[in-house]
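fyi for ur records
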Amino acid sequence: MERVILTGDRPSGKLHLGHYVGSLKTRVALQEDENTNMFVMIADQQALTDNADNPQKVKESVMEVALDYLAVGLDPEKTTLFIQSQIPQLPELTVYLLNLVTVSRLQRNPTVKAEIQQKGFNESVPAGFFVYPVSQAADITAFKATHVPVGDDQKPMVEQTREVARDFNRIYGEEVLVEPSIMLPPQGQGRLVGIDGKGKMSKSLNNGIYLSDSADDIQKKVMSMYTDPNHIRVEDPGQVEGNVVFTYLDVFDDDKAKVQELKDHYQRGGLGDVKLKRYLNDVLQAKLQPIRERREYYAQDKGAVLAMLKEGSEKAEAVAAQTLSEVKQAMGINYY
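which gave:
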């Protein structure tokens, strides 16, 4: 049985290591499964819900995200890469689904509540942002996604999609929309802490290492990483827990025996932070250099990247159009 996956990112800038660990590596692996049909969406309409006054930023970010996708190995021959705003069926489907969701239900959505607080909207939350769980439900159901990869913080969004699909099918008496299953990241591939150790890696906190960062940028960021503030002298025993350098080594260093050796040495004393960071820098440079080189290669012909996105969007539109036709048929509003 074919597994249909819908996933994507809001274009708000270049993607960082948190995205790579949390989703991009998994997507590259999933596209190799011959029983999986994967749609990867650049959600520019969703990005506009809190960037309506700066559409140029969103437009530029679409290309940046596309380059990052190609750089990590997403293949347009195996995966449908498309731009959300280029699929007119999605906003139309959103309008129909909005009638199935109450304002109070949207207000109870934990993800929406958290993001409203995070962005400081208070009572001035844009209506488009407030209803984006329904827009997301339209994105997912338009492609009849059977699985949606998300982190723990996004589980309420998929749960709301399942509710909407279930209500639609019950009200209109046809099994048109699919209730998707949640795909959580593999153990140890969830959120990645930022280099300051204060929270998850994010652009807003300015604590990220980006896939497009130069070798010099990566080195500077690694050398500024949070370690153990009580590890003042090289000979002092150091703490591994909460030490960002070791967090990154656990994720990115394939030589687990070497990492354990470094942990033991650090804990008994005699291993300095500078030497440890230099080792991590070597590990990250080896991981990111081929990604950066592929990104630079694709960036030389952005016209070809746009053509790829156009082709993917046309393919995605055909699928969404079929679903929308079935939706209108079930609702009885296919008048002609």
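Residues 215-297 form a domain with the Tyrosyl-Transfer RNA Synthetase fold (CATH 1.10.240.10). thats all i got for now
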